[in-house]
Design goal:
It is a single chain. The protein is mainly beta. It has two domains: 254 residues, Jelly Rolls, CATH 2.60.120; 135 residues, Trefoil (Acidic Fibroblast Growth Factor, subunit A), CATH 2.80.10. The chain contains two helices and 31 strands.
Amino acid sequence: MKRKLISLLMGTVLTIGGIFMNASMANAASAWGGTHDGMAFDRHDSSQFEMSSWPNGGMFNCTWSPNNVAFQNGQMKLTIDRDGSGYTGGEYRTRKYYGYGLFQVNMKPIKNPGVVSSFFTYTGESDGTKWDEIDIEFLGYDTTKVQFNYYTNGHGDHEYLYDLGFDASQSFHTYGFDWQAGSITWYVDGKAVYTATSNIPDTPGKIMMNVWPGTGVDSWLKPYDGRTGISAYYDWASYDKSTGGSNSNQSPSQGNGSNQGNNQNQGGNQSNQPVQNNTGAMFDSSKAYKIINYGSTLSLDVQGNRSANGTNILQYNYKGNPNQKWYFVKDGDYYVIKSASTGKVLTVQDSASWDGANVHQWDYYGANSQKWEIYPAANNTYKIINHNSGKCLNISYGSNSANANVEQYKDANSNYEQWWIDVAN
């Protein structure tokens, strides 16, 4: 019988690549001489785990549903399905936060274009911290490879695609990462396959697993074909606390003070005072501007130069096209950001207030979700804040890819929430 989430000291171990591993890979990894949390999936333990149940928005083309998380035959099954309002995905995460250590999962991902099966750590604005994340992701169009990635204070662009030499969707294998103060090393079946040492995250995060179909990221995931009733399977997951390093397993609310100070943008004006907000002198409404994301260096773009209400807003290489030029028009104390091509304005879809809500274009009708404040940020950039939600215009998932989605997100001092605004050429 597999164990519930418990803390214990393990016995017999052997060393693989400098890391203590259990002699039997059928069990969770052994301790490093510290605490071991073995997460078996015989059933849902609500005291230790959560099932997500909200829309993620952005490139996540689904709403998380507890109905898509099931436990059978000693395994957890996460499913992509559909209900009356659209696609649904499954997400499962710990309530506890985990710091430096060895994270492992024994799993079998979905094989289908346009979908992701994952195992990762995450913390962000909803936890009261900066956005730090470490990923193991299977892109369903080719499950003979696995993608490793990480985010530090919202900055990603660390993707590494590893060729497994087998099809991960056909059988269970063990994947993991050893997170230390100056490095992350990823493992496949106990073998070290990739190490990163630059700008490593340092904030404890929750352990998370999810499956989801993508939208607006076809260049990354390939187009999703709409297939439903497809599932990834998780046999077990584990965490072994590092005996070195200094970050703790406390939640942010428990006073993880050494990391709270990092939730600041380095340098620059963080006064959060509107730029010439009552005079309109900052922007000349007769001139068109280009809006370039600081993190990705790509331009705000009306998808396909389409004129219809609801056309999505993406990022794309700046070419000086009309659908990449914008007018800043005053409405009281706020700006309306109008496409030079279509005459429609940046609008948060459905006047949503949640993180990840989509941004598209719509005819102007005076809604607060169509009004924006402009605040100074670092590096001569600006934050563009929605009047209705108070959230920042943001590139979904910190992507550097052309055609990545544009969304709103709580201010996390991320490079992907900062924008250069210059007269268009």
